[in-house]
Every structure is written in structure tokens, then in C-alpha cells.
Amino acid sequence: MNKEEYHMFSRNARSVYVYRYHDTNSWGCEYYENQLVDGEHKKVFIAAEQYPQHNERWAEDCADNYVFGIKSFPNNQTTGQ
Questions:
Q1: pTM confidence score
Q2: In the chain, what are the domain boundaries?
Q3: What is the mean pLDDT of the chain?
Q4: CB burial readout 11-32, b (16+ within 10 A) else e
Q5: Which of 71, 24, 28, 32 is nearest to 50 (CA)?
């Protein structure tokens, strides 16, 4: 998969990387969260999403929603607030 990082959003324990996927000409996000793993805080991969019918702004809005706790995934341990 040919992707290029365009933006990084971070707030409290949550972070998101916004990518442009050149092979599919689409945008997407990779979602992470700092979690306590074996007694150490580590950046844990939470999910990845691609938005083939949407633009860069859409991906940025998804990233904002995640770091501010509006968007979450089942394996999140924080609320983002």
C-alpha cells in the first residue's frame, strides 16, 4: 500500500495519523492510544480506516473527532477528554 503521511493529531492519550493512499487515490486515518501495557505506557494501534469517497478535510474531521472523544473504537481505554 503506497501511502504518505499528511497530518498528525494528538490530544491527551490519543493520536491519529492522516494518510493519502496513492494507489487508491483516497484518504484515511490510523488511530492510536497510549495504554498501560505490562506496566509501561505504550502507543497501541487501535484501528485504521480509509475513506475512498471523501477528501482530506473529511479525514481531518475524523481525526479531530477521535482525539476529542467524539469518535471511539471498542478497544479504546480512554474517552479522549
A1: 0.92
A2: 3-67
A3: 94
A4: eebbbbbbbbbeeeebbbbbbb
A5: 28
